[in-house]
Amino acid sequence: MALPIHNVELRPQGKLLIKGGKCVNEDRAFEADVYIEGGVIKEVGQNLTASSECKVIDATGKLILPGGIDTHTHMQLPFMGTFAIDDFYHGTKAAIAGGTTMIIDFVLDQRGVSPLQAYDKWRAWADEKVCCDYAFHVGITWWSGEVAKDMEVLVKEKGINSFKVFQAYKDVFMLDDGEILEVFKKTKELSAIAQVHAENGHVIDQKSQQMIDLGITGPEGHAMCRPEEVEGEATYRAIVLANQARCPLYVVHVMSKTAANFVADAKKKGHVVFGEPTAASLGTDGTSYFHSCWKEAAAHVTSPPLRPDPSTPGCLMNLLANGDLQTTSSDNCTFTTTQKALGKDDFRKIPNGVNGVEDRMSVIWEKGVQSGKMDACRFVAVTSSTAAKIFNIYPKKGHIGVGSDADLVVWDPEATRTISAKTHNHACDFNIFEGMEVHGVPVVVISGGRVVKDEEGLHLTQGSGQFVPTPPNAPYVYGRVAARDQALAPQKVDREPYTGPVVELAVKVDNVKVTEAAPALSPDIVHRAPTRSGGRNMQESSFALSGEQFDDSKPRNQSRVTNPPGGKSHGLW
User: Fold this and answer.
1) Helix or strand or coil: residue 345?
2) Confidence grade of residue 450 (pLDDT, cut at 50, 70, 90)
3) What pTM does this model have?
4) Mind listing the pLDDT tens digit for each residue in 334-351?
5) For residues 251 and 327, is the Cβ–Cβ distance under 8 A?
6) Of residues 472, 485, 389, 392, the one with CA closest to residue 187
7) How far is CA 65 from CA 70, 96, 119, 197, in A?
8) From its phi and psi, is residue 398 left (phi > 0), alpha (psi between -120 and 50) or beta?
9) How far apart are CA 199 and CA 211, in angstroms?
10) Buried/exposed 216-239: b ≥16 CB within 10 Å, e otherwise
11) Residues whose CB falls within 8 Å of the CB of residue 32, separated by 6 or more in sequence, listed in order
């Protein structure tokens, strides 16, 4: 087991030569050797030779892949009264073990905390612990002019190009639609990317209380108060709001077919929107919420929840393979059983989150490539390259080419392993993929030009990872936004002014004086209030069991009409 090492020199970024493998980029696969020096790829070609001081890695029969980029993690997140047990050391250790060489975590503090101050806090946590490179998204959990100013500084000076809003977690992280629209407008102004946690927080708040009132306190209540349509409705609403702001939108942790289809449909209409399923939503389902073992059920609690429909993972993988969804993440936010037990009597208090940063690559290979739904190039796209393009760090990351960072994985597509909490590198005591056999194993992992995993195990140095700034105005995202804005811009219609007459408005009813009192109201008749002008309410019934009429007090005409219009009232017709 690799242990954290403090205050030591990093393993040298020596010269490395990977020979005999097949390089796989998102656009092509090709036989080539890769020469690395100073943490950067210096040469890619066939039959490269090594100097005496160069370490040679034999990749014969293996694939050489760009290191994975996990777009969504929550390391040591303070949440629901505790902290995620995977901190930035254990979390990045698990990432490297699985072939991921970069994570993008979330700065996510409470309402009222300056996003700039929160950023500084998270940087201090991460810099001293990370074992691989990392970047940040920033959550916007409240809105004000000061928050807008902080967003500008974060983009222009701190290397942030993405901001996340929540439609859920009422009274904690959730913003209303008006605030979300303002965040989207500001994000667009900064040429950044908006992200959304899509669930209807108001519905969840009411339905969760309903579950408790019905005596449903276990983890199944978590799934039942967050049905699929609640995620779908919020996804559609977020897409509409982003489109009105003309802001690119990235929907995080797509967990249901309904939400995924809304993303796919929006893309077909030309919206700039991206969808991110997770290792959990692609690799398992939500039937465990109804397991008779509380520990088993609670371990799967995450938001949005895994869907009980067992066809969901396959459907999401189909959409991912075909390009309707674009990236993959783990949404790694782990808690021990004793932490989950904070909600043993009330599912609303179970800390939300599951593992995945270590197993994401193998699970997607098993469910996507091994099943025949995608090829190795598409696998690279959904686990690395597309993320690098969206967050504007391509081809520095996510690519095998001269000048790219030496973050590489030698991947054995034929090897298998069985996932288990007994052998994983997480700090948690449960694995939602327990017992799953997967094809595709990272046998060598190189991060920043250093071998951090090989046949001997992990070789990690705590704090060796670097913060990677994500610049705004990513061409992959904003390349068509300017033209789209111009094409969709509102256009004024030039016409001759109207010079005709204009009707005069009637006197307001409020100014009419009541000159005649309303008839006296009989206690035997159910009366409606008079109209504002004092007249009789025509919806009122004049019927009474006594036979009394509403207007009995008025004199009646006693004459009989013998020749009404249309004929006499007697005689032959």
Assistant:
1) coil
2) very high
3) 0.87
4) 999 999 999 999 999 999
5) no
6) 472
7) 15, 14, 31, 30
8) left
9) 18
10) bbbbbbbbbbbbbebbbbbbbbbb
11) 21, 22, 23, 44, 45, 46, 64
